[in-house]
Design brief:
Layout lengths: L8 H5 L2 H25 L1 H8 L5 H18 L5 H32 L5 H25 L1
Helix pairs in contact: 2-3, 2-4, 4-5, 5-6
Length: 140
Amino acid sequence: MGIVGLETSSLESSRWREYAVRFLFGGLITAVTGLIAKKWGPGFAGLFLAFPAIFPAGATLIEKHEKQKKQKAGMDGTARGRAAASVDAAGAAMGSIGLMVFGVVVWRFLPDHASWAVLTVAGVAWMGVSVLLWWVRKLA
């Protein structure tokens, strides 16, 4: 079982326009969420902010980079790109479940408790659930 870590090498291989695409996707999703909030209220719209705003762009860029790496080595790389994007999607799903737990804790306890305490507990709950899901997935 591997240890969670940070790998910065992918930052060097990204171009400025790829960051712009991520920024635009995030802005577009946020704007659409604002329109949803106007029409159906913030409670309903908040569900859409649990969706990682840059995930669509990130997944396509991960697939593209992995495919390009394999192509440079003379291989197709399509399967490798899709596999890398699917691992990213699984991580995003686990983080989103953790975010839902965060939201439930805040929704349930904020009216009656100090905001700093509720946000701290919600943050720990989000991290705990996300790491637990990652750990369970690694064991499966």
